[in-house]
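[Structure tokenization] protein backbone as discrete codes

[Encoding] learned vocabulary of local backbone shapes

[Begin record] amino acids and matching fold tokens:

___
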Amino acid sequence: MFRAVLLLSILFYLFSCNLEPVLLLDNSGLTLNVRSQNKSIIIEWDIAYDEDLVGVNLSIYRVTEGEEELVEEHFIEDSSSYTFSAGKRGFYTIYVKGKNREGHYTEALRKQAFFFITDLPIIYVDTPDGKGVTTKEYLKKTRGMSTFSIRNADFYNIYTQETDIKGRGNSTWTKMGDKKPYNLKLSNDIKPFGMGKSNKWILLANAADRSLIRTEFVFTMANDILSDVLAYTPSGRAVELVLDGDYRGTYQLVEQKKVAKNRIDIDISAGEFLIEVEQIHDATDVGFETEKGIKIKLRDPEEEDEVDKIKGVIDAIEAFIYDEEREGLLEDKIDLDSFAAWYLVSELTKNVDSNFKSSIYFHYKNGILYMGPLWDYDLSCGNWAGTFANPKGFLNQKAGWFEPLFKTTEFKGKVKELWNAKRFGIKQHIDNIKENSRYLNQAQQNNFSRWPHLSETVFRNRVNTGSWEAEVDEVVNFLTARYAWMDAELNK
């Protein structure tokens, strides 16, 4: 009886107040798009021409630990866009709902965007349909060309041009979360930040390297003090990436390892080639296994009909390396300088991929096999748990072809000679890591707000420090201890 009386009272009150029932309109005639830019979020909406809507109600919420807090709300009649520029780093939820002449609203459309502030160059890539990059196949064949530009880079700005894009990597693509690496193939050559002109570039995600500096340290050091013994080492530059309007984090724009005069300078038509040691072979990969069980991928040329010829060359060199009664010098078949330089860099950093497992490149030129270019150092410098994190102990002296090489006084002497010639330069680069990483301060705040991984394992990380500064310290501490141990060992 009481419930019936209460219900009648509520109905009488609503009737006496002459309140109209709430009417939610269909929102199919309203579209919403949001895009992250430096220090702003661009919010755009469109109302179909046949919709009886006079404006929109725009609400902007800051997202903190899963909770939404209203920061701005506007009714907008005479525009189809709004620039939100009063934010702090982090995610924001955008709600837009249309309003008709009778004062009724549509159901709200909802999207999220990330607000970031950076002093790094920003790369913008937009796929043809705005659906991102979800495959390691170039998009052009199935979805069309994307667009590419660089902003916030002063005179290195590059205005919009077409590009093709695909995912790349093995574990970096499948096992390190949603911050993915990409390959770019632009319609035109570019020369960003003073690097070599090319249309092929790589965006390294460095998702598992929470210092964001391991690969940069290796490439910078090698280009600075080892360019006389390593014919080519890629150059790179830290950038921010916005893909389809979505801020994706701090990346490294790096030169693609390709055959060219300003990169890997070999003559394919003369029988020269580029190969990679890689344990994981996809169905489309072309390659072979040596007599000693080392798996090789052809990188250039990549045709099946080249396999037997290249395998013959590599098998002969491998047999020569293992032959303890060889006639002639090692330098008749391999370039000792590049082998020693590659070994020292990978041993110093104790790179998990360097023990003849993955990402080990060789190029064959003028009848000699060279090591290089250097590649894939995100899991180096103490970043991998277990033995790889111990600054003591040799990693590569018994790995692959290094095992027979270290049985020769010829190669051991070259390693010691090169170490002592470069040791002071190496130490200087280690000592400068903290100073040289300071330019990433704003970017790392963006990156780890977007990807809060500082206190969680991304991929077999040795330690979770909780801060970017502590991650940088980990790199410096490991390399300092590693350098001291190697210097003593190599000079015994």
User: Anything to note?
Assistant: Residues 350 and 380 are 6 Å apart (CA to CA). The chain has three domains: 24-115, 122-209+231-255, 268-490. Residues 10-21 have pLDDT under 50 and may be disordered.
